[in-house]
Task: structure prediction
Amino acid sequence: QESLYGFRYILRHPSLLGLQLTFLFLNLIGYVGNTVRAPYLLARSGNNEATLATVQSMLAVGGIMGGLLLSLWGGPKRRIHGVLQGMISISFVGSILLGVGQDILIWSVAAFGFGLIMPLLNGSNQAIWQAKVAPDIQGRVFAARRVIAQVTIPLAMLIAGPLADQVFEPAMMPDGALAPVFGGLVGVGAGAGMGLMLVISGVLGMFVGLGGYAFTVVRNAEDLLPDHVYAGSEQKA
Result:
């Protein structure tokens, strides 16, 4: 009953459910691309481990800078813009730009941007939930929230490898079926198929962020949900 309480609470609040479904779809799409990021960089760089290490380091530096920026700035006044625009931005910079990049400079910029935006996105979302859910039930509600948002991540990881090995990589070889169509965008040869996966992941991720604006319960979540000081706990509900 304690575990199920969090799910029932979210189901009773369409704006909270809408927010988490948005993250569910973003994680499903995004982690297909994220899973192939390291093998993509190795394949495109001729298995250059220093290139992979540099790009991964820039991702970490971006994350630190994003955390500092959030601490100093506090994020956008309308938190939902930080969430949805963060989804759009992170999909473009962290997936599309990475996928079309052909050298370490572009990859490093993409990784840094991904790391920089992620704390702003997650911080804005966290601020909404902490403002709208009473402190005495946040543990149960936030646990359910994490399950809803992240339940698709293992599935994304599971399908990413076969998609790369069996579908996209062969299709983006010089004589592959998709090479004439997308070769000018991501190149051809080793790693090009995974680059195309990153681009597709980014485009779909941007649509998820834009789609959030299409639904009133998500777009106006901060207005539709009362702050917890007025809403109080729903423990007895």
